[in-house]
Design brief:
With 348 residues, the chain is α/β, with parallel strands linked by helices. It has 10 helices and 20 strands. The structure holds fe (ii) ion.
Length: 348
């Protein structure tokens, strides 16, 4: 199984990408609205087809990217039947299985943080995604939405701690950089619910957390009960000047074939050294030459008015050039991936 753990620095949310290596079919658990481009880029770069997005619950601390991913990639939205949210494609309940190729996740209802909280467990029961029911050495708070510490206690004890001791547990969040735990570890060391903790012990702990009201709850919950559907006009428009995509590495790229076909509409900025321009790869007629090492000092020579496409030998130095320009406030800029090598290879 292909597995990636992704992190959102704003909400401390983990998103998990799971895929079947053979069929390239993928699932994404708890995608974050603002990380839509990142997740879409990773799916694209790994050659995956996103079949489903799965929510562990209706989140109060971030908006889901489920709706945006469905809109862009045709993935289907999976949510608990007890979530109270509308607009999902598949409402699941305890015992249901959601699969993409050979990757199959079984739903375990683990309410208590919210009514609709579920834990997703792989078919071999070696990995489980606990959402906010059980966190590493912690547990999801029970003081808003439909939180109930006695219900959460039972969910953890009866539905998570009954998994194999060596089952890896991946939570919905971590606020201290911890990434994974196991059933055995949490049974022993979880300060809220581990050891000999009774329901009363757990409830006492949870009722005295003294946490502030979640920052995003007033915006996040109404959006998440609609699966993260954006309000009209809420999304920044994609760059209109060409088929630009942002890579998982954060670089804006545009297809060189499109660039060749729209040659007059863009400025091509070649950032190779002067000696390279007369080599075998040649250079593109009418391109502007500024070696990468001089670009920061010569920004004023880059004309405004047209989008800028950066190019070099292999597309690496020009990726840095496009980042420099973007940082300097050039809005319409992109790298030509693969550089002059690819430009030549596709017959341009
Ligand atoms: Fe939550």
């Amino acid at each position: 199984m292909l597995f990636r753990q992704l992190f959102d620095l704003e909400s401390f949310t983990y998103t998990y990408l799971l895929a079947d290596e053979a069929t390239r079919q993928a699932l994404l658990i708890d995608p974050v609205f603002e990380q839509f481009e990142r997740d879409r880029a990773l799916v694209r770069e790994l050659g995956l087809t996103l079949r489903f997005t799965l929510e562990t619950h209706v989140h109060a601390d971030h908006v889901t990217a489920a709706w945006r991913l469905r809109d862009a990639l045709g993935s289907r939205i999976v949510l608990s039947r007890r979530s109270g949210a509308e607009g999902a494609d598949l409402y699941v309940d305890d015992g249901d299985v959601v699969g993409a190729g050979a990757v199959a996740l079984t739903v375990r209802a683990t309410p208590g943080h919210t009514n609709g909280c579920v834990t997703y467990v792989t078919s071999d029961r070696r990995v489980a995604f606990t959402g906010d029911a059980l966190l590493i050495r912690s547990a999801g708070r029970t003081d808003f939405q439909q939180g109930d510490p006695s219900v959460l206690y039972r969910s953890i004890k009866e539905r998570i701690f009954t998994l194999p001791d060596d089952c890896l547990l991946y939570p919905g969040h971590d606020y201290g950089g911890r990434t994974v735990t196991t059933v055995a570890e949490e049974k022993r060391w979880n300060p809220r619910v581990g050891g000999e903790a009774s329901a009363e012990d757990f409830t006492g702990y949870m009722k005295n957390l003294g946490l502030p009201h979640p920052k995003q709850i007033d915006a996040a919950v109404p959006a998440n009960v609609k699966c993260g559907k954006p309000e009209p006009g809420a999304l920044a428009a994609a760059p209109a000047w060409g088929p630009v995509v942002r890579t998982f590495g954060g670089v804006l790229e545009v297809d060189p074939v499109w660039v060749a076909e729209h040659r007059r509409e863009v400025t091509i900025l070649d950032v190779r050294e002067p000696a390279e321009l007369t080599g075998d790869l040649g250079c593109i007629d009418g391109s502007l030459h500024i070696p990468l090492g001089e670009l920061r000092a010569r920004l004023a020579e880059v004309p405004g008015g047209k989008p800028v496409v950066c190019i070099c030998r292999s597309g690496r130095r020009s990726a840095q050039a496009s980042l420099i320009l973007e940082k300097a406030g050039v809005r319409d800029v992109a790298n030509s991936p693969g550089g002059m090598i690819r430009w030549r290879a596709v017959g341009l």
